């Protein structure tokens, strides 16, 4: 089992609504990907403008397919453009 916690902070002037334009579809379609166990986006309540994707995958093969899926390759670069320093990925395994 693979757990990814993916953090990003919005650039000044970018709103949560702008991120949701891309993230809502990414979350919905990713939940349907083979081997996905969980996929959510959270907004920090203590650090304004900080978000975290929490993803759980069955194995590396499923994660690789997800990383190459059209909904991923479209949305992630758009989200990166809205973030200060890109996406920071922390990987955990069970």
Structural class: alpha+beta
CATH architecture: 2-Layer Sandwich
| Total domain count | 1
Gyration radius over CA = 13 Å
- Which sheet architecture does the biggest sheet show? 4 strands, antiparallel
Parts with pLDDT < 50 across at least 5 consecutive residues: none
Give helix % range: 25-40%
CATH overall fold name: Alpha-Beta Plaits
Distance between the termini: 5 Å
CATH class: Alpha Beta
Q: Counting H and I runs of at least 4 residues, what is the number of helices?
A: 3
Describe the oligomeric state of these chains in a short phrase. single chain
Using DSSP, what is the number of strands? 4
Please state roughly what percent of the residues sit in beta strands, choosing from under 5%, 5-15%, 15-25%, 25-35%, 35-45% or over 45%: 25-35%
Strand order of the largest sheet: 2-3-1-4
Shape descriptor reads: globular
Summed over residues and divided by their number, the pLDDT gives a mean of: 97
Series of secondary-structure elements, N-terminal to C-terminal: EHEEHHE
